[in-house]
Amino acid sequence: MRLSASAEASRVDGREDAARLSIVDVVLRKLGKGARSVGGRLVRAPRKGSVVVIEFPDGMHEYVTTPVKRVLRIAGREVFYIETINSRYRLEVRSRETAAAEGTG
Fold first, then answer.
1. What is the CB-side half-sphere exposure of residue 73 using CA atoms within 13 A?
2. Which of 44, 62, 66, 93 is the most exposed place for a label (fewest CB within 10 A)?
3. CA 89 → CA 70, 72, 76, distances in Å?
4. DSSP structural state of residue 58
5. 80 CB neighbour count, 10 Å cutoff
6. What pTM does this model have?
7. Above 80 in pLDDT, residue 3?
8. Contact call for residues 13 and 21 (beta carbons, < 8 A)
């Protein structure tokens, strides 16, 4: 059975354009006493039920939060307030780059 041209184009493997991903540099600040900030590349975005992962600039270490309960965004800005099971954070996006994913095609 042969697929039509439109069905072929809608398949993930049949697409001609390369996959793209965003590289997002962020600063994560823990709120409260003894708060410190962590800067690096966002590996896993904040979503309810998952952890936030930030890779340090050295590429060898990561900061991982506990599972996220709530994410709030300040309108018109790249600032997010994240509440996890046991902590609260402020996540500020510093820069974004779009790059072609390696190994596609």
1. 8
2. 66
3. 11, 10, 19
4. T
5. 19
6. 0.68
7. no
8. no
Q: How far apart are CA 76 and CA 35, in angstroms?
A: 26
* Boundaries of every domain in the chain: 19-100
Of 79, 67, 97, nearest to 28 by C-alpha is 79
What backbone torsions phi and psi does residue 7 show, to the nearest 5 degrees?
-70, -40
Predicted local distance difference test score (pLDDT) of residue 65: 92
Helix (H, G, I), strand (E, B) or coil at 72: strand
pLDDT at site 91: 93
CATH of domain 19-100: 2.30.30
Q: Quickly list H helices, the chain.
A: 5-10
- Give the three-state DSSP class for 95: strand
